[in-house]
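YM 10:42: Ethanolamine utilisation protein EutN sequence, as discussed on the call
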Amino acid sequence: MYMAKVVGSVVSTVKDPSLIGRKLMIVQPINSDGQTVRHQEVAADAIGAGVGEYVLLVRGAGARQVHQGEARDVNDCAIVGIIDRFDR
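YM 10:58: structure's back
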């Protein structure tokens, strides 16, 4: 699990069926000081995060298990929490 800031959204009218109904967000991974650490990526939003919010992300198998009871094999990165604050 790691932290990121939501910096935008992706609109896709044609996509894999496993992503239908999922909001796709552009996220910028950050470290505990709020500085960027890697390139931006796209994450499937499981909780309704908005642009400008700091979020918790999971990748790989953790991202695929976020959508309980649904086949979501395509998800590689998912937003699973909104950060209210982080103390450094």
